[in-house]
Amino acid sequence: MNYEYSQKEFEFFIELYQMVSAYSASHPMDTGGADCEKNIQGGVEKLGQTPYLKLGVSDVENANGLVTLMGAMEVVAAVSPSLYLTAEYSMRLLGRALAKWGDEKQKQAFLNPLISGSAIGALALCEQTVNVDNEPLAATGEKQGSTVIISGRKQFVVNGPVAKVIGVVGTCDGKPAIFLVDGDAPGLSINRTEGSFGYKGACISEMILENCRIDEDRMIRCSEKEDMVSVLRLWENQILTGASLGLMRASFESARDYAKSHKTGGKPIIAYQEIGFKLAEMLTLFQTSQMLAIRAAWTAEKQPREAFDLTLCAKVFCTESAARVSGEAMNIFGSSAYFGANPVEHAYCCARYGESFGTSTELSRIKIGDAALGIKP
Ligand SMILES: Cc1cc2nc3c(=O)[nH]c(=O)nc-3n(C[C@H](O)[C@H](O)[C@H](O)COP(=O)(O)OP(=O)(O)OC[C@H]3O[C@@H](n4cnc5c(N)ncnc54)[C@H](O)[C@@H]3O)c2cc1C
Q1: Ligand 1 in contact with 359 (CB < 6 A)?
Q2: Does 270 reside within a domain?
Q3: Is the CB of residue 157 below 6 angstroms from any atom belonging to ligand 1?
């Protein structure tokens, strides 16, 4: 594979960076609160005016599918982790599910508004208090004529409080399905989860479905041969890998600039060898992560059967590296890291999430070990 991005791709990344940075400077998106929520919705609309939301979902001129997407993910996550999470859980989870398994009518009604950024979606996969990698899906849909009646409880749903449509993952007749439920549907309760440790601007909620009714044509199914939950997990792990790259970029660049400008003991701290070693370690982890993430994205595009294990390797390495790089950035900032709206502090909090979100770092290692031994799940 070729690791080099083309001139056109670089130009797109620069335009994306300038657009998101300018918007985020006048519309804070990582502080939490009502204004922040409005700003993020505006941010998603702005992303809808670029090819960003389409990447990985449909063909984009001068773009190389998931490989271009990985580079673009780094750019958006570095500027605003909360905008990134909102846009990704909307587009690269629910949007990709609609693009892959939805019928034309569903695409028209639900996918097009997500691509244009005029609506935000959510995907509720994980069950209450448990990781779906350990236990079967508990949310169920029961068919009654042309109606499906859904019941279940989901613990954490990114975009739950702001989503126009939520893809609830469960089973119907014993087979996996995604139920497309309107955000304000009768029988659906959304309880916002406040005070998250990172991704402070993202809206997250618990969801309870009690006899929530949808028409049968709002149900998405996959083919018998596919494992829907594993595919959704793969996509979520790609999102967390992309987030880690952005968090590392933000942490490294902020720490490098601070080390050059902040003086103590009569000289800038970059003059102390130990600070230089820290920056060298951070850059090494960041660049190694970039290469592995791009290779995993390329494999998912070109050799999808081999993508599952490699994506887990990339997710483990990149999320753990992001935690380490942002932690070192905190040390370089010293006491300044603990006060005010500091990008390094926020990157550190977001990075810690990456290890537990999606297939957790512990479960990923178990799966990677099984794959190394040739044990099939
Ligand atoms: C802020 C936030 C937002 C989220 N948004 C969404 C969303 O939009 N949609 C969605 O579907 N999900 C979402 N999730 C769920 C998330 O992706 C996790 O999968 C889910 O939280 C798993 O829960 P848990 O880690 O508490 O699981 P648990 O299964 O309770 O795991 C607890 C701990 O035990 C470890 N563990 C579990 N099983 C094993 C094992 N077999 N061997 C060794 N160790 C093990 C885990 O690694 C973890 O460290 C979100 C989670 C958070 C925190």
Answers
A1: no
A2: yes
A3: yes
* Domain boundaries, position 60: 7-116
Residue 33 CA to ligand 1 center (angstroms) comes to 25
For residues 67 and 94, state if they share a domain: yes
Per residue in 20-61, pLDDT (tens digit) is 999 999 999 998 888 999 999 999 999 999 999 999 999 899
Q: Find the 229 Cα to ligand 1 centroid distance in Å.
A: 14
Q: Are residues 256 and 359 in the same domain?
A: yes
Residue 337 DSSP SS3: helix
Kindly tell me if the per-residue pLDDT of 156 is higher than 80: yes
- For residues 293 and 241, the answer to whether their CB atoms sit within 8 Å is yes
At 171, which helix (H) or strand (E)? strand 165-172
**What is the number of structural domains in the chain?**
3
**Ligand 1 close to Cβ of residue 152 (< 6 A):** no
**Tens digit of each residue's pLDDT (9 = 90 or more) over 97-129:** 999 999 999 999 999 999 999 999 999 998 876
Examine the domain organization and report whether 322 and 345 are in the same domain: yes
Protein residue with least CA distance to atom 7, ligand 1:
157
In angstroms, rounded to a whole number, what is the distance separating the alpha carbons of residues 293 and 16? 20
Once rounded to an integer, what is the mean pLDDT over residues 235-256?
98
